[in-house]
């Protein structure tokens, strides 16, 4: 288990009152503040990871778009060939 370190934090009176209403007699203030800070840190970490991901995507956008277009062209050609073969088969069946 992590070792906790005691610090001093100044909070507005209305915020402290809200915290006290939430924790009531069941939990200590420090627990709710710890939870809020952990959630905040996790959110900030996710934002940073998302920022890095977007940076990587933007850096490689030209290559990604080129590959996507090549894939679509290949699929379109395959569908076109399939439909042409289907139509040819149906015409041959008629004779």
Describe what you observe in this structure:
The protein starts with 12 loop residues before the first helix and ends with a helix. It is elongated, with a radius of gyration of 30 Å. The longest helix is centred in the C-terminal third of the chain and has 34 residues, at 61-94. The chain has helices at 13-23, 29-59, 61-94. The protein is mainly alpha-helical. The model has no long low-confidence stretch (mean pLDDT 90). The chain folds into two domains: 17-59; 63-95. Helices cover 80% and strands 0% of the residues.
**Looking at the structure, what is the overall shape?**
elongated
Indicate the mean pLDDT. Answer: 90
Radius of gyration: 30 Å
Order of helices and strands: HHH
What is the β-strand count? 0
First-last Cα distance? 83 Å
- The SS-based structural class is mainly alpha
pLDDT < 50 stretches: none
Fraction in helix: over 70%
Number of separate domains: 2
Q: Work out the strand percent.
A: under 5%
Main pleated sheet = none
Tally of separate helices? 3
Task: Give a short summary of the structure.
The protein is mostly helical. It is 80% helix and 0% strand.
